[in-house]
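User:
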Amino acid sequence: MNTRKKVIVIMTMLAFIVSVTVFAAESGIDWSNGTLRAVGMAAGKSGETRVNLARAQARRAARMDALRNLAEQMGGVRVTSESSMKDLALVYDDVRTGMEAIIKNMQEAGEPKFYDDGVCELVLEVPLWGANSSLAEVAFLPFKDEAKVAFPQPSTTSTGENTAVAGATINDKPYTGLVIDCSGMVLHSVMSPVIKNDNGQSIYGHQNLDYDKVIEFGMASYVSSVNDRAVTKRAGNNPIVVKAVDVENHNVNPVVAVSDADAILIANQRDHFLDTCAVVFVR
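Assistant: Predicted structure:
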């Protein structure tokens, strides 16, 4: 192969790699918008000259590639600090069956892309929560029959409309959600996080919530900034904002000071934002 042909081949390979890399950056889990995306790429049979047939072959192969990627990503989603979807599927038959059903009935997100070299690229997307074939419907099956537990009582009680608790004022303007600032800490995403106070008491977990609301809304969104639009989308225009003091249990469960936990619980007794899963973690 002469030098000119080698250059052309190398440039073609680089162009293909760049196109794959740019699109692949869009795959994975979007915890702020609640979606899991998987990308598939493949070409039709070599030597096929009929364009429509070649595209149909490429599309089928790309879908199979995307389904493999989707199954791998889905299995790796962490449900709790101790278990992933794959772990639960090994123990609970209904979780395994549910995952298989999601994969079997998966629809493509948008139209596939066809490149000049015959490669097809398509995206499959699964909602993390919602009552329509979401991951939450499957992930929380092991907890479906658990009895609901009331939120704990705060150690500090409100004595009026305005109660100051460790610098956080519980005033007469309703709170619309909770934002826990974990910036500067390593916080991993899970389907079922737990918020604790620094005495080790849980103040927010799936056992405190209506099962249907957990499925519909998911328990929390994860964002990189308090200014992210997803904060307002989930936690509203007047959230109570608390700084985490630590993260525990393999870096998945935020810990807040007891005084801040009391402020959260007092505000929730009046405004019920925890009941609707209006929780956002900043990391």
